[in-house]
Amino acid sequence: MTFVISMEKQCGDCGGVFHVTKFDEVPDNRDGYSTRCTVCQRPRNKKRRKEYYATLKGHLGRVFNGMNQRCNNPKIHNYSRYGGRGIQNKFVPPDEFRNYVIDELGITCIEQIKGLHIHRIDNDGHYEIGNIKFLTPDEHKAVHIQR
């Protein structure tokens, strides 16, 4: 049986009252609710995201998401040059991509790839093992001007 629990809480930061709803299989005395309203929680979340994307794992996750968007989302402005041409992201989970970049390409810290662009060696190939590397913006531009 599922119970919908609804209550008002007072924000631990600003003191304002906010409404929370929780779905619980078995309600108990511990509420497990947030202690901050969304207005006070938002800057904390933004700070955490910024810290996460400053790590190698976070940066590679962002690169992976960009590859997925270009290959799978027709609403993205450059989809026609990637997914529209049949280019696929063959790295299924993000961890497969991260492990390949760290283990095979030898990237050990974010400073090694910060500001670099991901590049497919074979322009008609997929994002897959053996077909990606990182280039500086000038190198990337030079490769694409030659074609």
Description:
The structure is a single chain. By secondary structure, the protein is of the alpha+beta class. It has two domains: 8-49, no CATH class; 56-146, no CATH class. It has four helices and four strands. It has helices at residues 38-53, 56-72, 94-104, 137-146, and strands spanning 3-10, 17-24, 117-120, 132-135. Strands 1-2 form a two-stranded antiparallel sheet. A two-stranded antiparallel sheet has the order 3-4. The protein starts with a strand and ends with a helix.
Keywords:
elongated, single chain, two-stranded antiparallel sheet, 4 helices, 147 residues, alpha+beta
| Whole-number tally of structural domains | 2
Number-wise, the strands total: 4
Whole-number average pLDDT?
A: 85
Number of discrete helical segments = 4
Helix content: 25-40%
- Give the helices and strands as they follow along the chain: EEHHHEEH
The proportion of strand residues reads 15-25%
The separation of the N and C termini measures 63 Å
Q: Sketch the major β-sheet.
A: 2 strands, antiparallel
Assign an overall shape. Answer: elongated
Low-confidence sequence ranges: 23-29
> Strand arrangement, largest sheet?
1-2
What structural class do the secondary elements suggest? alpha+beta
**Gyration radius over CA:** 22 Å
